[in-house]
From TrEMBL:
Residues carrying N6-(pyridoxal phosphate)lysine: K263
Record protein name field: Glutamate-1-semialdehyde 2,1-aminomutase
Pfam families named among the record's database cross-references: Aminotran_3
SUPFAM superfamilies per record: PLP-dependent transferases (SSF53383)
Length: 427
């Protein structure tokens, strides 16, 4: 039995000075119950908590730690950058290097650096609205684009429903122009355009949704979205904050007008970007009228970490990541099948999810129908076995290039025990 005494003390201390004891809600274990473990340090594929427990990490800081934790070359790059100054409030050549690296890998002609995925998507939408002179945006239920007011809207009834705020503090006016439709339903998007002719500025979609669990786009779905937006004078924003540089050198690279990036491109430090066609991006100040700014945008430490990470992501690394994801997904699925636990493995790339459901999952309603109690039992058993999974049934699992054969052997035993525990939980 692992000891969690220090984590429990940390949780008590944190709750007195931080809302809920965490600085991002999913960390609070609300989706699985129990007390979160507090991490002291990490190396390679493993986390070490404040009690000294070691965990094989399948979260990877929600994606950025694609090379593993504390990669020596990334650490050295950050140390070198920090020794020269941590922020300047002025341009640096490193920003150019990172921008060139990103544009060389993606469909973007120009990008702008920001500090978070929320900033990136919020800014991309502002560009779309400014460029089209329209206000409304279509988003998909279950797709997460950060916590800007306009994106915190959930689906209502009907084919295309004006979104209601999903959080107190978000005024109805902030989401009145947000239209929420079911994911993978191209007819619902077409209906939204018909019902709001000449009013929709953009459709925003995750290239591969990852915040209702990992859900694959239907065959041709992203292309159909692009064709539909073009036919209706709107823009398509492809959110690759999660998939960018994770599923391949440039991400998914589905056709779009604007793109957003984050996570991997910061190498574990706060960095993100949005970009796209030159004619759209040059509507931003100071060359155009659309205002956007950020005091710490292009921070030299984040730029150094991100640039070093991207340059280390060779074809061999992606081949290893793909192989690991496939092997681990199949290993978990086999253990659950052997234990008689209904589940669906969704793996459109090297990020993946297991839904505790008898049916294939293609949208948010289907994802919500899973047995989250079984996931919680699976999660906590794995935690006791030294495996760190996302503390929510609605998140992706992430592998890192630092994982070893020993790690895979550890997982095989742990999955078997966790699956048997999940089998004891019924609806």
């Amino acid at each position: 039995m692992r000891k969690h005494t220090e984590s429990e003390l940390c949780a008590e201390r944190a709750a007195t000075v931080i809302p809920g004891g965490v600085n991002s809600p999913v960390r609070a274990f609300g989706g699985v119950g129990g007390t979160p473990v507090f991490i002291k340090e990490a190396r390679g594929s493993r986390l070490i908590d404040v009690d000294g427990n070691s965990y094989l990490d399948l979260v990877g800081s929600w994606g950025p730690m694609i090379l593993g934790h504390a990669h020596p070359e990334v650490v050295a790059a950050v140390q070198e950058a920090a020794a020269k100054g941590t922020s300047f409030g002025a341009p640096t050549s490193g920003e150019i290097d990172l921008a060139e690296e990103i544009t060389s890998r993606t469909n973007c002609e120009e990008i702008r650096l920001v500090s978070s995925g929320t900033e990136a998507t919020m800014s991309a939408l502002r560009v779309a609205r400014g460029a089209t002179g329209r206000d409304k945006v279509v988003k998909f239920a279950g797709c997460y684009h950060g916590h800007a007011d306009a994106f915190l809207a959930a689906a209502g009834s009907g084919v295309a429903t004006l979104g209601a705020p999903d959080s107190p503090g978000v005024p109805a006016s902030a989401t009145a122009d947000t239209i929420v439709v079911p994911y993978n339903d191209i007819d619902a998007v077409a209906a939204a355009f018909e019902q709001n002719e000449g009013q929709i500025a953009a459709v925003i979609t995750e290239a591969v949704p990852g915040n209702m669990g990992c859900v694959a786009p239907a065959d041709g779905f992203n292309q159909k979205l692009y064709d539909l937006t073009r036919a209706n004078g709107a823009l398509l924003i492809s959110d690759e904050v999660m998939t960018g540089f994770r599923v391949g050198p440039g991400g998914v690279k589905a056709p779009a007008d604007l793109y957003t990036y984050g996570k991997v491109m910061g190498g574990g430090l706060p960095a993100a970007a949005f970009g796209g066609r030159r004619d759209l991006m040059e509507q931003l100040a100071p060359v155009g009228p659309i205002y956007q700014a950020g005091t710490l945008s292009g921070n030299p430490l984040a730029v150094a970490a991100g640039l070093t990470t991207l340059r280390l992501l060779t074809d061999d690394v992606y081949e290893k990541l793909d192989g690991l994801a496939e092997q681990i997904g199949k290993m978990a699925s086999s253990a659950l099948s052997e234990a008689g636990v209904a589940h669906y493995l969704s793996a459109p790339g090297n990020l993946f999810s297991i839904f505790f459901s008898e049916n294939r999952v293609t949208n948010f309603n289907e994802a919500k129908a899973q047995n989250t109690g079984q996931y919680a039992a699976f999660f906590h058993t794995l935690l006791e076995e030294g495996v760190h999974l996302p503390p929510s049934a609605f998140e992706c699992w992430f592998v890192s290039a630092a994982m070893t054969g020993e790690d895979l052997s550890h997982l095989e035993t742990a999955f078997s025990r966790a699956a048997r525990k999940a089998a004891t939980v019924r609806l």
